[in-house]
Specification:
The chain has seven helices and seven strands. The protein is of the alpha/beta class.
């Protein structure tokens, strides 16, 4: 996976410039700003820096396994603390500087599906437990990823030969049960079929559809 994204990194952002991409970005940005802005944030699967492109944390520690994506991130946001590590691998959290902990928020945008094996509630539970240890009491964990419907999205890079992993709500529910976190709350981030996504009014109207009907969703937990 890292090698593929190394190759894509220089032009990665240019794949997401349609109006519907901007509307989805605006939706996710509006939800995350109260959690992220002016806070100390850990961003998992950071890619080229979506979070820093759209929000203003006081400090961001950004983790990704692809050196090319991290290089593009640093080019755009030189003040970031960039960490090369594969989230979920043994000892991945040890690469995160201890001086940066604990975090006010742990985030992931457009990446949760890559942070654990698809359908593996046990691995996701382990990831949530680690996030809980990294975030301060009262902090928030906000992880965004592809819902099952995303596999129908022809705009995915490499479709139809390559389809992405997805995050099933039932798997998240099972993983959360033993995490010690409060939640999750699932917020849908885009439900209108791309073929109809020429009207912002129609797109906004589709946001009221149930979470599982969306292409992507943000799961939010709080640490008590």
């Amino acid at each position: 996976m890292a090698d593929g994204y190394d190759d894509l990194a220089p032009d990665y952002d240019s794949h997401f410039t349609r109006p519907v991409d901007r509307w989805e970005d605006d939706r996710l940005t509006g939800i995350l700003r109260p959690v992220v802005d002016e806070n100390n944030v850990l961003d998992l699967g950071c890619g080229t820096g979506w979070l820093l492109d759209h929000t203003t944390p006081a400090h961001c520690t950004a983790v990704d396994s692809a050196a090319g994506m991290l290089a593009e991130l640093i080019r755009k946001h030189p003040r970031v603390t960039a960490v090369k590590a594969e989230v979920g691998a043994d000892g991945w959290h040890e690469a995160i500087p201890r001086l940066n902990r604990p975090f006010d928020a742990v985030t992931s945008t457009w990446a949760l599906q890559y942070l654990f094996p698809e359908g593996d509630a046990g691995e996701l539970a382990a990831l949530l437990a680690e996030c809980r240890r990294l975030v301060r009491p009262g902090g928030v964990i906000a992880l965004h990823g592809y819902l099952p419907r995303y596999r129908n999205r022809h705009h995915y890079i490499g479709w139809p030969r390559h389809v992405p992993p997805v995050v099933r709500p039932d798997v998240v529910a099972r993983a959360s049960a033993t995490s010690g976190l409060h939640g999750p709350r699932l917020i849908g981030c885009g439900a209108l079929p791309d073929a109809l996504a020429v009207s912002e009014r129609l797109w906004q109207g589709a946001l009221s559809l149930p979470g599982g009907w969306h292409y992507s969703g943000l799961w939010m937990w709080s640490r008590t």
